[in-house]
Amino acid sequence: MGEIGVGQFLHALQALNEADVRRIAQSLESETLTDEVDWWRATIAIDKVLRHTRCTRRAARAANDATRAVQESAVRVGIPLPDQDVTRVARAAADVARGLAAGAPARPIVRLLLEHWEPAHAEA
Predict the structure, then answer these.
(1) Maximum distance among all alpha carbons in the chain?
(2) Where are the domains of the chain?
(3) Contact between residue 79 and residue 86 where contact means Cβ atoms under 8 Å apart
(4) Residue 93, pLDDT score
(5) % of the chain with per-residue pLDDT over 90
(6) What is the rounded CA–CA span in Å between residue 12 and residue 45?
């Protein structure tokens, strides 16, 4: 998996189809307790990086854009909202986008979060 930026990630989210959304949601849902703890630790670490680099506004905008991209893709492919899988994927996409917005200091952390995103990441 090569390096991916916020723009590339958002572009990949805009290209999601229903099968991608369902696969990513299933991957996120099937996490073990250890995986879930790792996810929370990663988001806490990203928060620290964002505060340190003072780019919380940029990260919030990226998170919002990621959420919207997932929702728009869902509507485009005919998934009626609200949908539990779309919500799960949109929330996770927001976390990934925040990490990507944090830049190089957060890259090792973001790699952990990107494990569930093979369908989206492969398109980027």
Answers:
(1) 41
(2) 6-123
(3) yes
(4) 97
(5) 75
(6) 24
CA distance 70 to 54: 26
Residue 124 pLDDT exceeds 50: no
**Tokens 């990260």, residue?**
59
Q: Report CA torsion sign: 24, 77, 100, 92.
A: negative
Are 123 and 12 in contact, with CB atoms under 8 Å apart?
Answer: yes
98 touches 62 (CB < 8 A) = yes
**Per-residue model confidence as pLDDT tens digits over 70-98:** 999 999 999 999 999 999 999 999 999 99
What pLDDT, on a 0 to 100 scale, did the predictor assign at position 115? 86
Q: Looking at this protein, which amino acid is placed at residue 62? A: A
SS3 of 103, please?
coil
Cβ atoms of 12 and 121 within 8 Å: the answer is yes
Cis? peptide before 82, omega within 30° of 0: yes
For the whole model, what pTM was predicted? 0.89
Taking the C-alpha atoms of residue 76 and residue 10, their distance in angstroms, rounded to an integer, is 15
Q: What residues contact 66, with CB distance under 8 A and at least 6 apart?
A: 9, 10, 13, 90, 93, 94, 96, 97
Residue 59: pLDDT band with limits 50, 70, 90: very high
